[in-house]
Amino acid sequence: MGILEAGSPYQSPLKEKRIMNFFEYRGQELYCEDIPVQKIAEKVGTPFYLYSASTIERHFNVFSEAFAQVHHLVCYSVKANSNLAVLKLLGEMGAGADIVSGGELFRALRAGIPGERIVFSGVGKRVDEISDALAAGVLMFNVESREELFTINETAGQMGRRAPIALRVNPDVDPKTHPYISTGMKKNKFGIPISEALLLYREAVELEWIEVVGVDCHIGSQLTTSEPFAEAVTRLMGLVREMEAEGIPVRYFDVGGGLGIVYNEEEPPLPANYAEAIIDALGAGDRILILEPGRVIVGNAGILVTRTLYNKRGATKNFIIVDAGMNDLIRPSLYDAYQEVVPVVKKDREQTVVDVVGPICESTDFLARDHKLPAMAPGELLAVLSAGAYGFPMASQYNSRPRVPEVMVKGDRYEVIRERESYEDLVRGEKFF
Ligand code: LLP
């Protein structure tokens, strides 16, 4: 599989247009936009995350344009990649933000995304986070439980500011994705059961400091078909009709995020098809559609660059030991997720089946298993593709490994947008007792 195919969330089944992201081989060398990846590695060291600004822009535009026929707001899901430079880039293109914590609110505001374009999701909002969000004038809170609704009402009352809310409704739809990233089924902790939502909305409209403005759902992540989205919207529309019949206003209809990307051989719908499915299910009405995409915007706009340390022959397997580990990119370990790994400079060598593993003291510390790769000599670089979403934000310092830098490229220019942490950073705030 070529790199363009591997890296393209928008690869058309009709194959009309191939160049969907800006990572490609020119000759033997992997480029990010107009810069050889190897050149950046020489300057910043390894491992590091590398993002293509033009790819992020392109993905955002393709996604947003898919909904051009309806009044909509794309609230980028900050958790997917929360670097300030990424948020600023998207904010300047008109994106809002979907946040799930005070920290994400802080980041979104710092990056210049105004409160009125921010939706606050998440099952466990603390009072201080709620009041910060009220002070910022967020567009709405996506409320996940009755107790949370009452806490928001009370906090809003103390501040003398009404809180705009939607209920996050759990529509009980199977998104047919990995169980760890399914969120809209009865057994999940998320949302309010659809059967109870109307009753809670009736209570909500009676609360003095609550203003009901919408409905919300989010059924899961990395979905590769449109049907579950359409099914969720259809179920929520049943609720919306009941609400409107009772005079409960629904200005915003938030369908969450979840559109999948190509990591390997998935065939997720194109944004245009995804949009069509949602818009059809919504039907007529002048509600404003809110989308919360994360992965589809940034996933294939980033790679993790790592260096070969050693080769090792095990009794039954061969390993390439690299300088990035599960603390830098946890998706393979946590979800058994597939991430494509390719040499940064193509090798004319025989391919063998190997596990690409990190230096961490855990058997789950792998980036790829049973992967076909050419022999790699110590010092040679590998790129882990599709690492722009849920890569750096899920990184930790486990094994006392400083977190790696993030670099952004635009055309022939690059910038370190987060510095490599130092050993001093590792112990910052610690004290002897
Ligand atoms: N909105 C809400 C309320 C969410 O919980 C999420 C993701 C999104 C939007 C964005 O979903 P996306 O468009 O990125 O699928 N760490 C996992 C993914 C966890 C997703 C959590 N929620 C992974 O690496 O696959």
Q: What is bound: which ligands?
A: ligand LLP
Radius of gyration: 22 Å
Query: How helix-rich are the residues, as a percent range?
Result: 25-40%
Work out the helix count.
13
Write down the CATH topology of the largest domain. Answer: Lyase, Ornithine Decarboxylase, Chain A, domain 1
Summarize the biggest pleated sheet.
Answer: 9 strands, mixed
* Global structural class: alpha/beta
Number of structural units classed as domains: 2
Shape: globular
Question: CATH superfamily membership of the largest domain, which one?
Answer: Lyase, Ornithine Decarboxylase, Chain A, domain 1
Low-confidence regions? 1-19
Oligomer: single chain
**Amino- and carboxy-terminal Cα gap:** 55 Å
Say how many strands there are. 21
Query: For the record, what CATH class of the largest domain applies?
Result: Mainly Beta
User: DSSP strand (E) fraction?
Assistant: 15-25%
Mean pLDDT: 93
User: What would you say the CATH architecture of the largest domain is?
Assistant: Beta Barrel
Write the layout of secondary structure elements.
Blueprint: H1 3-7, E1 23-26, E2 29-32, E3 35-36, H2 37-44, E4 48-52, H3 53-66, E5 72-77, H4 84-92, E6 96-99, H5 102-110, E7 118-120, H6 127-136, E8 140-143, H7 146-159, E9 163-170, E10 192-193, H8 194-206, E11 210-216, H9 227-245, E12 252-254, H10 271-282, E13 288-291, H11 295-298, E14 302-313, E15 318-322, H12 331-335, E16 341-343, E17 351-357, E18 366-374, E19 381-384, E20 406-410, E21 413-418, H13 423-427
Helix pairs in contact: 3-10, 6-7, 8-9, 9-10
The protein binds ligand LLP.
